[in-house]
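User: I'm putting together notes for a lab meeting next week and I want to include a structural view of one of the chains we've been expressing. I don't have a solved structure, so I'd like a prediction I can at least talk through. The sequence is below, exactly as it appears in our construct file.
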Amino acid sequence: MEIEETPSISKTSCFICSTIPASTHFGVASCRSCAAFFRRSIVLKRDYECKRKGKCKIFQADRSSCPACRLKKCIANGMQIKKIRHHCDKNGPCQRTIAPRAESELTKCPPTLSKMVEGYKEFIEDSRNLYFALNPENAFSRKVVYKAATAQEHAFIDRAGITYYLKMLNNSFHPFSELSIKEQKSVLEIFHFRFTFLNEFYLNTVFFPGNTDKHFLHFGAYLDFKNPEYLFSYHKNIDEASRTFFPIVAKVIKVTKKFQALKVDQTEVVALMGVALWREIVSQFPGRGYDEVLARIQAELSEYTRNTNGSDPFRVGRLMCLLRGLEELSLILSECLTIGLIMNDVRPDTNTDLFKT
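Assistant: Thanks for the context. Below is the predicted structure for the 357-residue chain, given as structure tokens.
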């Protein structure tokens, strides 16, 4: 007789997907992800349909693969609909009677963007602390000293930073954490370059405003536009490597000028990160309701730009056009990497190996 293997479940594991740890939500021991899924499904009156006749296995690695079976398992394990506070859970915290807001407060981030911005601020601080961990001689002064960097040096820091931005996405770009590990890797294989470039272009406007000779790479390092060959100074054939990747440098210069001209602020760049992320997620996993997340971020970005740049009704359009430049930049990078590998054995580390499943 065949016996189906079932993952062991401890007292502190989620009754829905077996994730550890778990705590009581809606009357059942469950993880935060499953609790949020149950609440959102009920409040938004989602009507899911299983494509496998209702026989899907719901465990941590694939808990997002079938929302129909996941919701059915939530209810079957005793999650109580009556414990959901509809007047609070549909639109966030309970509304309290407050005094009218001052005009200056209207420019504050909308709810979703506010959470994302806080996560990005933490990512920046983590990245700064990584610099001091690697340069302890500057730890007491807390002064970041910048110098030109090679592609090899930048790839090392970029790889270390993946831990920080993955934490940011899971904690602040809800509901990214609901994706399985396999799904997250699939998304990040495409999104990684776009996030990296957005982060660089924004911080470039912060640390090198109006400087046309430098481009921020990471804390303590920049790309020297006057001497781009230094980027490949570690390679045995510097000239060949520089020629291969010249299209990247040329495109970076163009996009840098656009970011500086628009003076993109922190909230706007975080919104662009969110749009780029959820566009990719919607593209890979249609029909799961993630398009609603994308629409909400775009709506909040429009509201934010109206409040902060009311004199420029087309600003949100100009911001969205920046994403097209980033997509082109990512494509050019992929082409250059392929050409470099085939023709010249020139292939800087891109760290996308971490996202292979």
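A couple of points you could mention at the meeting. The chain has two domains: 23-89, 106-355. Residues 106-355 form a domain with the Retinoid X Receptor fold (CATH 1.10.565.10).

User: Perfect, that's what I needed.
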